[in-house]
Design a protein that fits this description.
six-stranded antiparallel β-sheet; mainly beta; five-stranded mixed β-sheet
Length: 403
């Protein structure tokens, strides 16, 4: 990595939506995404990745050289390697995959060109489960040849009527939504498409996904009044649709996040509601009781769309970025997205369980270092460094008092 990496981040460089993020060793990694500048979407540089130390709240920029992944990607993290699949480039939708080993001294993007099996069709707005070092992709929006469409069930691919195109005089392509499950084995670089059973979700994109044990969950991004929930057993490839009482169910939505917070709970936040509003509600879904529970939300002033939410220490849900006001406007011809989206660069945390005594002590000392004076120097060096970071974090977030 660049030894002279930047230690602070201008807000304009960090503000973004539709990015990729993950947490490792209490560092939040953020890559990619876009901003809206003068009414136009501007893709953020692919040759940099930002790291936020969640103990101190400080940011660092690191460089990534090599090939440039396309926009609209789906990013996944496996064993300190960041993978991207799909998206779109100046030539249209793509089926390319890239990887970057973040442990390398000189981190570099590599385009994977020697994969085995049948590569999935080009797409974006898909999601990924990471299971046993495999990347398991679901759904998305993309293009297929007319021959491909004729060979698959109409329940697996929904064609948009106005999205037909002719290339030359011989090849026809169409664009639409799919509900395919495709697998990439990171050890053998092999693509496969398992045959699934059971009631599969309708084709969709911009949905949310999460994994608990050997089961992958899919929710949202369909025009339902209430949020749906499906589960795929990743051992038997069997789908299950949950029959949920509508008496306490979140509003249907897309572009939201779903994060596993225990062996049987999923936490969702925000998204774009089916009513066109940017949402700020938080819910937990219990996979054993098959019920939704609305959570107390200390961040009601932070509605979000196209953000990320990662599982942090002590089962915290760490939210970063996104748009606080993605507005859609309807006219007599089309659905239009408003040019101003108010992209965000803040990090905020949802506490989902009681903290340990150790965590409570850390935070108390961090908030009140003056109570301990030189006694802090008696701490072991590793713990002393952690406390120094917590002091820096709480000092930076302490409100400024004015007369």
């Amino acid at each position: 990595m660049d030894a002279a990496a930047e230690r602070t981040a201008p807000l304009s460089r960090l503000k973004r939506s539709s990015h990729s993020a993950f947490i490792e060793n209490n560092l939040l990694y953020v890559w990619g995404g876009y901003q809206v500048v003068a009414g136009e979407e501007i893709m953020l540089p692919s040759d940099e990745i930002w790291l936020c130390d969640l103990d101190s709240g400080t940011w660092e920029r690191r460089e990534i050289t090599g090939d440039e992944p396309p926009a609209g990607f789906c990013g996944s993290h496996v064993n300190s390697t960041l993978y991207t699949f799909g998206g779109y480039d100046p030539d249209g939708f793509t089926d390319q995959m890239f990887s970057a080993d973040l442990t390398e001294q000189s981190c570099s993007w590599k385009k994977l060109t020697d994969t085995k099996g049948t590569t999935p069709s080009p797409r974006n707005k898909h999601t990924c489960w990471v299971h046993r070092d495999r990347l398991i992709y679901f759904g998305g929006y993309g293009c297929k040849t007319i021959g491909d469409v004729r060979n698959i069930s109409t329940s697996n691919f929904i064609v948009e009527e106005m999205a037909w195109a002719t290339i030359g005089n011989t090849l026809f392509r169409c664009w639409g939504w799919n509900n395919e499950v495709v697998v990439f084995d990171t050890h053998t670089a092999t693509w496969s498409m398992p045959e699934t059973r059971g009631p599969a979700p309708a084709p969709r994109g911009s949905h949310a996904s999460a994994i608990l044990g050997n089961k992958g969950y899919i929710s949202g991004a369909v025009e339902n009044a209430e949020l749906d929930m499906f589960c795929l057993d990743l051992e038997t490839w069997t789908w299950t649709q949950f029959d949920i009482s509508p008496s306490c169910t979140p509003l249907g939505r897309s572009m939201f996040t779903m994060t596993p917070t225990s062996d049987n709970t999923l936490f969702i936040y925000g998204g774009l509601g089916t009513d066109g509003s940017t949402l700020n509600d938080a819910w937990q879904f219990n996979t054993q009781k098959i019920e939704w529970n609305k959570m107390t939300n200390p961040h009601k002033d932070k509605p979000r769309v196209s953000h990320t939410a990662c599982l942090g220490s002590d089962n915290d849900v760490v939210v970063f970025g996104g748009s606080s006001s993605m507005c859609f406007l309807m006219d007599s011809v089309a659905l239009l997205r408003a040019p101003v989206q108010n992209h965000c660069s803040d990090v905020f945390v949802f506490q989902t369980q009681p903290y340990s005594l150790f965590r409570l002590c850390e935070d108390f000392i961090g908030k009140n270092p003056e109570l301990f004076g030189k006694h802090l120097n008696w701490l072991p060096s590793k713990l002393h460094n952690k406390i120094d970071k917590r002091v820096a974090f709480f000092s930076a977030t302490k409100p400024v008092l004015t007369d």
